[in-house]
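Try this one yourself first.
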């Protein structure tokens, strides 16, 4: 659990209002996922009274009341972190797919919730990856930056403001130069991929996951997250272009051979998500990964996922080839 406020002065009390707004927004998001209504049952105090007490203490600072507010916020945060630990990345992704109109502010609050965790697991990294990419594309990804696959500078500045507001530690950019260069090089290599089969043979998705795993807590730094968003957008764009190119090639070929054609496949995002999402595993929240945590079975799942996509695209050609052979015999 993160204790954001350390001072007991009237000035620092204002930060409790930031905490309240953050937790209230995350609570609302999690409530949409909470089919068993576990969150309200875990809270032993009235949230509306907590808000009024914060405003009251802003107007008339009291040391004892400040400590009480801090304790109630801490309990609320613990409840939300407990619920989050039981929520897989896939469920959060599904929420975004179902609630396409989720606004920027809730996304920002959810991202801040993960950034302000004291201990971050691989699951937290994957969720942060998902949320910051969606925030970056929704709020800061311009047409130009998406075309040229560049990191949006506004996102980095926005992330730095979050770190400042919640007093999170940032590393100097000179300490992160090598890491940034590594991510940039991987983003450039994506542009050289010419087919889905090449992407599979080079194990691109597995390699990117290794890189993210090896970053540890450095992953959560503003400049790194900004580069990760650019990398993810590049991966999405390259994958989608290759996917649609294969689909177009098959559709064009088949339309010349028979009037029926093939059923078009349009869920490129879902296909990509199905092969890059990591299966849930129980992890010690206090232990950060120092090596790639994928076992042999998980590697095979990623490879098989890509093979399934290729087979899905090649199946119609195989069937047509057999039909042509029969007609010519």
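Now uncover the answer:
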């Amino acid at each position: 659990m993160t204790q954001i406020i350390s001072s007991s002065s009237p000035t620092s009390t204002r930060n409790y209002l930031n905490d309240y707004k953050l937790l209230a927004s995350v609570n609302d998001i999690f409530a949409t996922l909470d089919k068993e209504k576990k969150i309200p049952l875990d809270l032993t105090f009235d949230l509306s009274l907590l808000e009024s007490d914060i405003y009251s203490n802003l107007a008339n600072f009291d040391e004892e009341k400040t400590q009480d507010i801090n304790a109630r916020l801490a309990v609320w945060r613990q409840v939300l972190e407990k619920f989050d630990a039981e929520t897989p990345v896939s469920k959060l992704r599904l929420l975004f797919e179902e609630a396409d109109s989720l606004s920027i502010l809730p996304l920002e609050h959810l991202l801040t919730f993960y950034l302000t965790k004291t201990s971050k697991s691989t699951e937290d990294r994957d969720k942060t990856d998902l949320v910051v990419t969606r925030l970056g594309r929704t709020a800061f990804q311009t047409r130009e930056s998406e075309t040229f696959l560049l990191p949006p500078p506004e996102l980095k500045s926005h992330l730095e403001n979050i770190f400042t507001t919640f007093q999170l530690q940032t590393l100097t950019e000179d300490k992160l130069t090598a890491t940034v260069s590594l991510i940039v090089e991987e983003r450039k290599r994506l542009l050289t991929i010419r087919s889905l089969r090449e992407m599979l043979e080079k194990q691109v998705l597995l390699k990117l996951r290794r890189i993210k795993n090896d970053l540890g807590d450095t992953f959560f730094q503003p400049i790194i997250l900004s580069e990760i968003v650019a990398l993810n957008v590049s991966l999405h764009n390259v994958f989608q272009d290759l996917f649609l190119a294969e689909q177009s090639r098959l559709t064009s070929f088949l339309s010349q051979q028979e009037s029926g054609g093939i059923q078009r496949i349009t869920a490129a995002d879902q296909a990509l998500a199905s092969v890059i999402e990591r299966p849930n595993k129980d992890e010690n929240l206090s232990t950060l990964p120092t090596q790639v945590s994928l076992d042999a079975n998980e590697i095979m799942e990623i490879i098989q996922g890509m093979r399934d996509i290729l087979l899905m695209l090649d199946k119609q050609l195989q069937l047509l080839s057999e039909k042509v052979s029969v007609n010519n015999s």
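Discussion: The first helix runs from residue 10 to 33. The two ends are 72 Å apart (CA to CA).
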